[in-house]
Amino acid sequence: MDVTLARHATLVVELDGTRFFVDPMLSEPGANPPVENTPRQRRNPLVELPNVDLEHDAVLVTHRHTDHWDAWADAIDDDTPVFCNPAEADAFREDGLTDVRPVADAEAFDGVTIHRTPARHGHGDTAEAMAPVCGFVLEGAETLYLAGDTVWYDPVPEAIDAHDPDGVVVNAGAAQFVDGDPITMDAADVRRVVGHADCPVVAVHMEAINHCLLERDDLREAVDDVLLPADGETVTL
């Protein structure tokens, strides 16, 4: 089971010979405005997209925020299977995609079962405003839990317990507005995942978007035994 980090939360996961393209954000550096109401106002993305193999058999999108679904058209054919949250299926069809497969609970693809898992993109009213968002579990010969944009809350350890994954990918970065708590995992949240999961934990979603304030070196210092791939790096689980 190979997980290649392209940049931010954009991944290519190869499982049982099937390649899943996750949360494609393919914009050129500086093409998008900063996330508003955040401490560091710089245009996004902050870094180049490395030269990685983005070939895929299907696409998974945890949510349609522009740091997870942007400038995808040159890389994704209109008839590619796209698995998504049911609440966003119509929006993908409006984009011109013809094989949209909302995951209400679980869907099968090429011998891999795709489970949709809950996610909470922040706390309180902020989480409500940031919804809908989800994670996915890919279950084949091995199992990978993609937590998506979520903080630590009860459904995260519940998903780990229910699916007993061989690897977990968390979206860290402690994304932050000027007011309120982080809307993605901070170091304490990642530490909780590492402590709960009996498998490798990979942290991504850092150093590419202006509101992600937790950097790799800080997370490496704060949490033992977390895998922190560089942009363009492949981790074999």
Automatic annotation (TrEMBL):
Alphabetized UniProt keyword annotations: Hydrolase
Record SUPFAM superfamilies: Metallo-hydrolase/oxidoreductase
Organism expressing this protein natively: Halarchaeum grantii
One GO MF term attached to the UniProt entry: hydrolase activity
Protein name (Swiss-Prot/TrEMBL): Metallo-beta-lactamase domain-containing protein
InterPro entries recorded: Metallo-B-lactamas, RibonucZ/Hydroxyglut_hydro, UPF0173_UPF0282_UlaG_hydrolase
Signal peptide, first to last residue: none
Domain of life: Archaea
One of the Pfam families matching this protein, by short name: Lactamase_B_2
Sequence ranges assigned to domain Metallo-beta-lactamase in this UniProt record: 18-189
The keyword Lipid biosynthesis is assigned to this record: no
Residue ranges, annotated region (Disordered): 25-44
